[in-house]
Structure formats: C-alpha cells, structure tokens
Specification:
Radius of gyration: 16 Å
Oligomer: single chain
Order of helices and strands: HEEEEHEEHEEH
Low-confidence stretches: none
Mean pLDDT: 93
Shape: globular
Structural class: alpha+beta
Strand content: 35-45%
Number of helices: 4
Distance between the termini: 9 Å
Helix content: 25-40%
Amino acid sequence: MSTEHRLTCALRELINRHRTAALGTLNPDGSPFVSLVPYAVDPAQRCLVIHISGLAAHTGNLEREPRVSLLVSECATANGPVHALPRVSLEATAELMLPDTTEALACRAVYLQRFPEATPMTALGDFRFVRLHLQGARQVAGFGAARSLHSEEVRQALGPVP
C-alpha cells in the first residue's frame, strides 16, 4: 500500500493521462509566448521530453532562455464548472539534446513509446529532443485543493509509484 500523498497521486495521474501541454517561453523582447507541445514522461530521468522543430518560435526562445513553464489541465466540459478543473503549472529548465547522442536516443525511445506515430518526424533534421527538468509546480487538484511543490516533489510524481 502506497503512503504517497493523495495530491501526488492525482498529479501523477494528470501528467500521465494527458499528452499535450501549453509551453510558455520568452520572446527575444521579453514578451511571453505560449504554444502547444506534445510531451512524454521519462520515469528513469524523472523529466518530461518534447520534440521540437528548429522552425518553431518556442525553439529559438528556449535556446536563448532555457527557463520555461508548462500547463497541463483537464479539459472543460460544456456547462461544467471551470474554476476547480484539475491542473498543474510546471516550472522547468530546458536541455536541448545534441542529435545522435546517447541522451537524444534515450529521449527518442521514451517519446516514441508514447507517440509511435511520430517515428517519421524523428528522422527530420530540423527537429531536436529536449529534456524538461522540473524545478517546481503549482498544482490545483480541485476547489480548495491547491499547493506549491519543490522540484523533488514534482520529480516524485514522474517516477514509478512507490
């Protein structure tokens, strides 16, 4: 029987169930930029993995400033309450993988396990894998159930159930 906190269990379930996140980066002028990215969970490294094109604005942004934010959220339903939707805002540092390295190949394996249909895209020369190392988070698990988490607490939710 797990002694893990119920909100950590809810966080793990939220992150593993969803496949996309809103990625926040900073433009060269300092203005915010948000884009949608598919992500995979790497339980061995306890990080998230994204696969990005050199043509995308967020790629240049995170090359200049590796601090990023991601939002993973339940979807709103028609006429349903929206203020208590489970969600998490993740703070992370992006690490771009050099092509054809052991680290990039490990990221590719994790990513393709979740997105096997992306195999052809992983062969395109302008795409790179990025590890997102989580630094902290703000989790809302429902009305009256919110908390801030440090990096180790977030990383715990990315690993196997204890």
